[in-house]
Design a protein that fits this description.
This protein has 405 residues and is mainly alpha-helical. It has 2 domains: 2-202, Hypothetical protein af1432, CATH 1.10.3210; 228-401, Hypothetical protein af1432 (Orthogonal Bundle). It has 22 helices and 2 strands. The protein has a two-stranded antiparallel sheet. Helix 20 (366-378) runs antiparallel to helix 21. It is elongated and about 65 Å long. It binds fe (ii) ion (3 copies). One fe (ii) ion binds next to loops. The site of one fe (ii) ion (FE2) has 7 residues, from loops.
Length: 405
């Protein structure tokens, strides 16, 4: 199948998942993208470069999946371990055709201006340092304890202090000019920021994308989710491969099989909003922690629903913890409200999770995992026919669910 998608809209929506890593302090990527574009415009850079900067700004922290890492990056001006997420981001972006050209900018987005090699391409130096500068402006907004005008002065003073060291003097100068306008700061507020991006997104056109191109993007975001915890590495990938296989056993149309695969890859996007400490907790979650954990299917939907052409995928992604006895979450849907594709993803999700190590137990064998699934089926939670397909092809399913990316 081929898709007709506005890549600006796709990126804007999916960058919401990256911004989830800030938990309560969301929209970091979007603020960085907005500020970087404002400086680039001040410097009269060409519009196509400004557009690339907006994409790169939204995606700049795709190498951050852990809420702990995010906290360090926000609370410390120059964190020792910051290079790890730059390299990871570079690798992730390079894995896609569409975002590959931004990978160099992200590789150097925490490198001091004075340490950037003179051999580097000028655009790479300027754009990566631009992202670095505005990224630190956003971090300083959190770090500086004074409010109002005082905080603006304090941010400007700090950035100026590092001119020619951390940041290019040309960029510092542009920042001083742009940040002297009140509107620059007003645009960082949620409503104005989304208005800015709606206008930018609407200027983009739908383009034909092959299924492989769309899947590459979904794989990249699945890798961001799967990197959140060592226990969930490859989970989204395994779910998607298994779910697609099961969908094919049902002879579903190519379109439906692809939707199942994409929803499988993206089903846990909402987990980026769950604190590391909850996800990796070795003991039972308390009621509040459970609520935070259980909302992730809903949050996956909130991200994906913005993409025109992804409505069904958004819905399917949000259903993966619904059960046929209407005791699942977040919607408590009844059997009649859960389509076959949703039932397939649920069984795939449970099976993949059972065969993986978890903080509180080792991974189960195929037979042990199947026995648990079979009991859930007998209890009226899972679809009998889907579970039968799993049973008939158990070893193949185990192999597919443990696939390595
Ligand atoms: Fe960063
Ligand atoms: Fe950042
Ligand atoms: Fe989940």
């Amino acid at each position: 199948m081929s898709y007709s998608l506005n890549i600006r809209e796709v990126t804007y929506a999916l960058s919401g998942a990256l911004d989830y890593v800030g938990i309560d302090d969301t929209h970091h990527g979007k603020r960085v993208a907005y500020m970087a574009a404002a400086l680039a415009q001040e410097l009269s850079w060409k519009q196509d470069i400004v557009d690339d900067i907006i994409f790169a700004g939204m995606l700049h922290d795709c190498g951050v999946s852990s809420t702990d890492v995010h906290t360090h990056l926000v609370n410390e001006l120059d964190w020792d371990n910051s290079q790890v997420h730059c390299i990871r981001g570079e690798i992730l972006l390079k894995s896609t055709n569409i975002y590959g050209k931004f990978s160099e900018y992200i590789k150097y987005h925490h490198t001091h201006w004075q340490d950037l090699s003179s051999d580097l391409n000028e655009d790479v130096k300027n754009i990566s340092n631009l992202i670095y500068l505005v990224d630190r402006v956003d971090a300083l907004r959190t770090q500086i304890q004074v409010s109002g005008v005082e905080s603006i002065y304090a941010i400007q003073e700090t950035i100026k202090k590092f001119s020619n060291k951390m940041f290019s003097p040309m960029l510092v100068e542009a920042f001083m000019t742009v940040s002297s306008k009140d509107s620059f700061w007003f645009y960082l507020e949620t409503e104005a920021l989304s208005e800015y991006f709606i206008l930018w997104t609407n200027k983009g056109n739908n383009e034909p994308l092959s299924y492989e191109q769309v899947k590459e993007i979904a794989l990249m975001f699945a890798a961001v989710v799967d990197a959140k915890s060592e226990f969930t590495s490859q989970h989204s990938l395994g779910v998607s491969v298994l779910a697609r296989y099961l969908a094919e056993l049902f002879d579903l149309s190519l379109e439906r099989c692809e939707e199942v695969e994409l929803a499988g890859l993206l089903h846990d996007l909402g987990k980026l909003k769950v604190e590391d400490a909850i996800l990796d907790k070795p003991s039972k979650l308390n009621a509040d922690e459970r609520l935070k954990m259980n909302r992730h299917g809903f949050d996956s939907y909130i991200i994906l629903r913005h993409i025109e052409g992804f409505k069904k995928i958004a819905k399917l992604a949000s259903l993966h913890h619904e059960t046929l006895d209407a005791k699942g979450y977040p919607y408590n849907l009844s059997a009649a409200q859960i389509p076959l594709e949703g039932r397939i993803i649920t069984v795939s999700d449970i099976f993949q999770a059972l065969i993986q190590d978890r903080p509180y137990r080792d991974g189960l064998s195929a037979d042990e995992a199947f026995n648990i699934i079979n009991t859930m089926c007998e209890d009226g939670k899972l679809d009998f026919v889907v579970v039968q397909k799993l049973k008939e092809n158990l070893h193949k399913c185990y192999e597919l669910a443990t696939v390595k990316g």
